[in-house]
Specification:
Helix content is about 15%, strand content about 30%. By secondary structure, it is an alpha+beta fold.
Length: about 160
């Protein structure tokens, strides 16, 4: 699923489109020389040994990864199954991860195409749609409850000029 759901800028592969080098069910045809973005991809299913085979991305129909620097967890869902993360056993385990001690400020961002949903201990929040370059801004109060969350839009890109 990462070969479909993740954008790979090095080879101009857009998000939600199968990579031309991938054979679903078999893997990467250029594995030995794959782009650094692929080689460095942080697959949450591989990293978290508590997740069983039912969490394997091709079965779950979403990819789990972390945002570098923030610790924010992303569930990148297959647009063909936008509610995959709400199925069991996924939904119960996701919610339990937010309820564990020390997770008061944990953030899980679910993306399905351009739609984003923020999950925190206090609930689920539809943040609307996002575009490349947008930032998710989240603030908690002193007790660790969500105070506000929003999408900060990236500045518009200058229009291309004819040469």
């Amino acid at each position: 699923m990462c070969c479909k759901l993740v954008e790979i800028t090095e080879i101009a592969k857009p998000q939600n489109v199968w990579c031309s080098h991938c054979t679903p069910g078999k893997g990467c045809g250029i594995y030995a020389s794959r782009p650094s973005e692929c080689a460095n991809f942080d697959c949450g299913w591989l990293a978290d040994t508590s997740l069983g085979d039912d969490w394997r991305p091709d079965r779950a129909r979403f990819v789990i990864t972390r945002e570098p620097g923030s610790g924010r967890v992303f569930l990148v869902c297959d647009p063909a199954m936008p509610a995959a993360w709400r199925r069991e056993p996924y939904y119960a385990k996701i919610k339990a991860s937010l309820a564990r001690p020390g997770a008061e400020r944990t953030q899980i961002v679910v993306t399905t195409g351009r739609k984003i949903t923020l999950l925190v201990r206090g609930g689920e929040y539809d943040l609307g749609e996002w575009d490349k370059g947008d930032q998710i801004i989240v603030n908690f109060d002193a007790a660790g409850r969500l105070a506000n969350a929003r999408v900060l839009r990236a500045p518009p890109r200058p229009a291309a000029t004819a040469t």
